Amino acid sequence: MSFEPLASDFYGYYDLLTDREREALGELRAWLEADVKPIIGGYWERAEFPMQVVKPLADLGVLSYAWEETAPFENSTLFRGFVALELARVDASVSTFVGVQNGLATGSLAVGGSKEQREEWIPKLASGEILGAFGLTEPLSGSDSAKGLRTTARREGDEWVLNGQKRWIGNATFSDITIIWAKDEGDGQVKGFIVPTSTPGYSATKIEGKISLRPVQNADITLTDVRVPESLRLQNANSFRDTAAVLRATRAEVAWAAVGTSVGAYEAALDYAKQRVQFGKPIASHQLIQEHLVNSLGNITASLGMVVRASQLQDAGRLGDEHSALAKAYATARMRETVAWAREACGGNGIVLDHHVARFFADAEALYSYEGTREMNTLIVGRAITGEAAFV
Prior knowledge:
The chain is 51% helix and 14% strand. It has 392 residues and is of the alpha+beta class. The protein has three domains: 13-126, Acyl-CoA dehydrogenase/oxidase, N-terminal domain (Butyryl-Coa Dehydrogenase, subunit A, domain 1, Orthogonal Bundle); 132-232, Butyryl-CoA Dehydrogenase, subunit A, domain 2 (Beta Barrel), CATH 2.40.110; 240-386, Butyryl-CoA Dehydrogenase, subunit A, domain 3 (Up-down Bundle). The strands form two sheets. Strands 1, 2, 3, 4, 5, 6 and 7 form a seven-stranded mixed beta sheet that branches. Strands 8-9 form a two-stranded antiparallel sheet. Helix 8 runs antiparallel to helix 9, helix 8 (240-275) packs parallel to helix 10 (321-345) and helix 8 (240-275) runs antiparallel to helix 11. The longest helix has 36 residues, at 240-275. It starts with 18 loop residues before the first helix and ends in a 6-residue tail after the last helix.
């Protein structure tokens, strides 16, 4: 399938990809435009997740690319960033589903699992045979998860007993397994566990009333004497440093999704401005509308340059927490500006779902906060450049 770079890739970053990577992006974009874009507004309004997208995502390789056990062809972190952009350009909730299934759940197994655990679970997650979730955030612990986890794990023979609560866990109303991060009562270290959601004592309740990422099925999880065997403990996840290794990669991917959300809002506003006639001519010919569009394109171009370089650093094994943090903080802040300009360019029509802009405008708020708030990511970068920690 032929691939056409997006007009919003103003400086030609797609040229950095291989022909095979561009071909795969073209296939993904064609499916998103044909099968997701026309229906997603209704699912957003009903706060339902379109489960029919799971199999095509798996068939297209979106859930497989990152893992040596399942990758359909050799590909780069840069390519996978563009995959996140393409997904979020159409819908940030579908992008978030992939980020949880592929980045957080499968990523936890890739980072913390033994060889045997990787071989057993990664292919099942990559094929969509099972669905996963990632349980870190708690009702009273978000930004301070490194030290503030209250969920506990107690070793009893060949089993672990988990107790606690988790909140804002994406995919958790329908996941088959959830990776639960808990503090070991024995040594005080954070450890990861593969918890089948059918396990007695495990319950997940959907969080209602969201104004952002409405199709994403976030849940409150309660763990009451949940027993899991030692074989389901992530064998190579022995402290929060291992949890952080998962988040480091996915935080950069959220930055890519933020760029995609900006692109989607910008493109929708541009299309609207070309069609909407006021004072006898398309509003695209009005100076102030052009200013909104040019400012949006500038934000997209600057953010894209940052996330492209972050992915190149990751491919080179040089990506640090501070690099992911700066990309996430900057790209989401610029996204917030961009979706606001897009909504403004559409006037009153920018607050209804018909033109897509309203959905991007609302969804940006969740991306701005999850996977590390702007404030926390700022402090991570601040520590790196000054040598001083200012978290408390």
